[in-house]
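Posting this for the archive.
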Amino acid sequence: MLARMPRTIDPPEPPLHDGDLLLRPWRESDADAVAAACRDPEIARWVPVPVPYRLEDALDFIRSNRMAWREGIGAAFAVVDAASDRLLGAITLHRAREREAFVGYWVAPEARGRGVATRALRLVARWAFATLPLVRLSLYRDVGNEASGRTAEKAGFVREGVLRSYADHRGEPRDCVMYSLIRSDAVVAAGAQAASEAVLPDAGASEAASP
């Protein structure tokens, strides 16, 4: 029988990493890079970030995500270059029901096409199932965001169907495609990754998904 979700969630130590990719908790010093990335029209197109996006919005984003760790309601990672600490993107695990969590992510414009989102999603999924008493990870994307769908499927998530008017995008209801990864899927996905010698780059111009 699975245990209940913990009251707090501790960041992994050592940090999650995959070659030149490293996932770590957010720092307030990341604010300028977050603001620059979230002013990208493609991120604003798919992710309900404030428009226009200000430095204050970036600081609010970072502070709320740091609080999520302490309150046990989420696990938010800055995706950075392991050598330079340059911000490449964001990936966040949001608690939903007792044994389910949602995953959301975006990738900075200059980091797209390198498999960043797929690799980060695999790392977080593997860590989540190993650390937290989850039975399911869920992920949804706007019906038009095909690149995000390819990212989810490369990471082992299974498409379930379309949910009509599911997400609120700055006041506009949007249809979304739902994906899931359950514990048995995660085992299969890990085996498939180990058998592969290369990670294909993510397709499309945008890898952003609704958080």
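The longest helix spans residues 55-71. Confidence is low (pLDDT under 50) at residues 194-201, 203-211.
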